[in-house]
Fold Aspartokinase.
Amino acid sequence: MKVIKFGGSSLASAEQVKKVIQIIKDDDKRRFVVVSAPGKRASNDRKVTDLLIDLYDACITNKETFATIDAIYQRYAEIAAPFGIDSAVLADILESLQTLATLPITDNSYFLDEILSAGENNNAKLIASICQASGIPARYINPKELGIVVTNEPQNAHILTKAYKKIYEWRHAKEILIIPGFFGYTENGQICTFSRGGSDISGAIVARGLRASLYENFTDVNGIYAAHPGYIHEPETIAELTYREMRELAYAGFSVFHEEALMPCFQASIPVVIKNTNNPSHPGTQIVTERTNLERPVVGISSDEGFSMIYLSKYLMNKEVGFTLRILEIFRDFDLNYEHMPSGIDDLSIIFRSEQLNEETEEELLRKIAYEINPDELRITHDLSLVVVVGEGMKQRVGSMAESTAALARKNINLEMINQGSSEVSFMFGIHKEREKDAIRSLYYTFFE
Ligand code: ASP
């Protein structure tokens, strides 16, 4: 049995929903369907979730809400139009949207969550009716009834382990269940959403709870590309990669799938496949626990900009007990999250996202390090990009690092930092952000063509 999830772009219009209906019909193992709210129909369009945020803003600033409610309602009405569904369904959606504007605001930490959840909740009701009108025996189910119990952190819920047992009880449901993504209920029965893009998380939770054989995640690309299509013309789609590889790639910019959504499937060893609603016969990208085909050393190359690096060296540093601890304590005092800390015998670099510092805090930080650590050399570099080369196949193979550095050298790209983690699944280069595109290109053509 498979759990299938459709993202917002797959549900943005009646035309897209027709494809979704066909995809559900095509495979009778697709018994549990998780849906997002309607997304963008074109790049200049707005997601229903973003319109709901407008509604929230209007409510808390005491502004008129009619136009926004109508704009949201029209999105559902437009999707429903060609399917000939019962008019009561749309009336129900309109009423639920109008009710949002009357909810209590003061002392209600979940006000935004209640508003946001309406996007997927109404969509699940609508898609269930469209399924029925199209001859699919389906019904809407509320996440509370299904058992999605979450922590009480507004807009950042996490699943409670006990939820999985309850969800499992639905395994033999007679009808195909249409489940709204993005939210669950706290133990006190309060609606609470996951972080943005969280319908992926709902799908993964349902797949784990039901012990599904596969979690199919339908979106608007053929799968995960081996490199950013903005840098490489028509990059290859990765056929198969492991959770670990996916995690490494996602770290530096691969954002097809919500990062937190991998966890439940990883824990239960349920394979995930990313597929394209607009091209469903394409096999997509499969994420698995272990890969059998390791012929190619590298699966993907990703990159992200916006990093800074503090370098410090001190003679005989490695003999001082607690040296690193003291530096990290300073980072903690500045509420700074660091990403990497490659070190040598008497020196180390700390890499972190630049946005966490401003001119003033940077000066203070350097002053504090200089005062407390008394290094021989201390400097900070900005405008760094991290380029990550990922592949389990590199473990069995000699020379991947040599080939990579040679490729970068041919392009005259200066390496500010090299970091190979202990896993041997990836390594990382810190380079100036202006050379990011060249670096990705030279690495891609080294390993892929
Ligand atoms: N609709 C929500 C969002 O836009 C959740 C999702 O689509 O996954 O963030």
Observations:
- The chain has a mean pLDDT of 94.
